[in-house]
Model the fold of this input.
Amino acid sequence: MRVSNAAALILLALPLFAETKVFTNFTLIDGTGKPAAPGVSMIVVEGKIQAVGPAARIKAPAGAEIIDCSGKFVMPGIINSHGHVGATLDMEQGPKFYTKENVEKQLGVYASYGVTTVMSLGTDMDPVFEVRAEERATGRPKFARVYTAGRGFTLKGGNPPDQGMRYAVASPEEVAPIIEKLARQKVDMVKIWVDDNFGRGKKVPPEISSVIISEAKKRGLRTAVHIVDYQDARNVIDEGAYALAHSVRDREVDQALIDDIKKHNAWQIATLTRELSTYVFAESPAFLSDPFLTRSVSPVVLQTVKSEKYRSAMRSSRDFARNHELLTMAEKNLKRESEAGVKIAMGTDSGPPARFQGFFEHLEMELMVESGLTPMQVIVDSTRNGAEFLGAKDLGTLERGKWADLIVLDKNPLEDIKNTRTIQAVYIAGNKVN
Done:
């Protein structure tokens, strides 16, 4: 790795008082999939990477702030391609909690865990657009960067209920005006739920989902679809969906679906922790006492999920046994799709009650490794691939010209993916996160 002559010329041409930081002497995991590089330094000017390479070849500009990272490992900030912000307070969820203050607070929690970008997928109200506009005005937010699908689509009287956070439609004719509104809001994605709750409800039918996807495409918008079943996945991919927001969980994927996904250049998001959350609290898991979690979760939430009442309710759920099987199937399908070259972006569905923002992203990466992916594959899925999924060309890798969204770690995550939790510092656009 070396600093090009062009980079040197840019550095010489910097404004006299440009904010400049130099991170020195770390092992770089740049998010591209290249092997880790020891003994690296990085120059960051006004939040963007201006040079990165062997420390011996990187000369700190006069007046730069030097950040000694000796013995540390530096990787890009984590990108959660499927989360939710703003609508939850402790163990309750609903539009009454959706405030700008709550959105910013939750983005701050994500950032403290090194999750520097979040796609909030389909339960967002007006405050998210104000937060997003303020972030993008400078490109240098104080908390995680937010992307949003606004309000997603469900079926009127179907599953899930609109709950004041989704658009419930009964016919294809209702779709276009809503898509037009979403286009005016400049949403980053359109979301559809196609799910009948194991046959107990009604799902968005193909005659509606196909119109949502086509109307979105007319306006340059991409669509992510919540699915459970194999056939629904086949349907929405053939209709032109950009992403499956969850794994197929009713059966193993086959080559036909894999070929379909690749033919349409679509994405897969697994959300393994979403499945885990449907049964894991029945036995009060050890992570509920992990300081890495408890530092960001209110005592009210911890008391609730540790209670015998909560554990008993989860054990008595009619889907309790099935939920174990859903996670096993999702893990199996993730491994097969990854091996087949399907594009994978890491996502968790964190944000609803007891789906812990920030912590679940690290747990998701652990589950992805347990599914059979390597730590390097998981890091790429959680950084570079997340940026590509979002269409964010200046995020996702630690290369010249990109925003300096990064995590400084005490231990090597390529040796053990759990080492992504050894966070020494987080930076967004070169600014240290509190």
In short: The longest strand covers residues 20-28. Residues 320-339 form the longest helix (20 residues). Residues 174 and 208 are 9 Å apart (CA to CA). Residues 5-76+397-432 form a domain with the Urease, subunit C; domain 1 fold (CATH 2.30.40.10).
